[in-house]
Amino acid sequence: MPTTVLIVEDEPDLVHVMELTLKRAGFGVVAAATGGEGRTMLAQHEVHVVVMDRGLPDMDGLEATQLLRGDGYDGAIIVVSGHVGGDHVAASLEAGADEVLSKPFKLAELVELVHHVVAPVAEVG
């Protein structure tokens, strides 16, 4: 069973290219356009990594990250954001993110980061 990535992103074009890229890299992919939909998808699918946009229409991605952690999700979360600077990274990590990826990013960076956060899980399992 492949590692499954949940993309929580409200820009359909970006979801499409991330989904294609991650599938080509061998990952399973599910997607949600809001933080609320992301929580629903986690309840319906076995998800190993969440790629969480910071700017969602229903809530801030950091709030969504905190909710996922509060729901008991212990998989990796990568926050993707157009915000820059150390404060942004610190706030993302405090909210429960494992990694932060700043927009714009190269799709190869996303794949590399997903591999990076999955590797410790694979070593334990």
TrEMBL record:
It comes from the Bacteria. SMART domains: REC. The keyword Phosphoprotein applies. Signal peptide: none annotated. The keyword Oxidoreductase does not apply. This is Response regulator transcription factor. SUPFAM superfamilies: CheY-like (SSF52172). CDD domains: REC. Keywords: Phosphoprotein. PROSITE patterns: RESPONSE_REGULATORY (PS50110). It comes from Nocardioides zeicaulis. Residues 4-118 form the Response regulatory domain. The modification 4-aspartylphosphate is found at residue 53. InterPro entries: Bact_response_regulator, CheY-like_superfamily, Sig_transdc_resp-reg_receiver.
